Amino acid sequence: ATEELLPEMSDFKLGQEFDGEVERISDHGAIVRLSEAQTTGFVHVSEMRDVYVSHPAAVVSVGQKVRVRVLKADRGFLGLTMKNIGKKSVHDFMVGQEVRGKVKVVKALGAWVDIGADTEGLLHKTQMKEDGFVDDARRLFQVGDEITARVRWKDEAKGEIELSLKSAGEVLMPLQRGLKVLDLKEGEETGGIVKSIQKFGCYVDVGAE
């Protein structure tokens, strides 16, 4: 089996790092026992290296000590990765926070920036100028450019982060999962995702149950 049932998923946070030991290897990945947590997690073969790995045995062996980070902790399954060890996770960044980074990829719709996180932040073309329209991000940036931006939005569950070069007032509130309807107050600002649009208005997911 490639999955281990765990009693407490709430103890684990995305991006959290552990030392572990490879306990078992399959064609799809490896079971790693976490020394500090006294439990096991699964590292898929695609999460062992940044390059293609044909078989887990080409990277790890039973009994090998490895450093891993939490990729997913949901419904009794603990997914781990051996990539981006030592880097921050999306959880470590705050909306509105100023960050410095280097442009890694540029396409027409925007630039992807290495800000020291385990995922690159997206600087969309609509967030590149305080005023004015940008039709192609490649006209403003190229790979290797260093920039200072602000975190505009993040989704910890999906591991996504968006950046902006606009003023601090342009940032978006993060979506807060786990809220109760009674927690919301009239006139209060909160983050949300538009789920559907109707003639009379739109439905917005604000994270409330």
UniProtKB/TrEMBL annotation:
Q: What is this protein called?
A: S1 motif domain-containing protein
Matching PROSITE patterns: S1 (PS50126)
Q: What sections of the sequence does the record tag as coiled-coil?
A: none
Q: Which Gene Ontology biological process is one annotated for this entry?
A: translation
Matching InterPro entries, A to Z? Answer: NA-bd_OB-fold, Ribos_protein_bS1-like, S1_domain
Q: Which domain of life is it from?
A: Eukaryota
Q: What region holds the S1 motif domain?
A: 15-83, 96-166
Q: Which GO terms describe its molecular function?
A: mRNA binding; structural constituent of ribosome
Q: Which Pfam families match?
A: S1 (PF00575)
Name its species.
Alexandrium catenella (Red tide dinoflagellate)
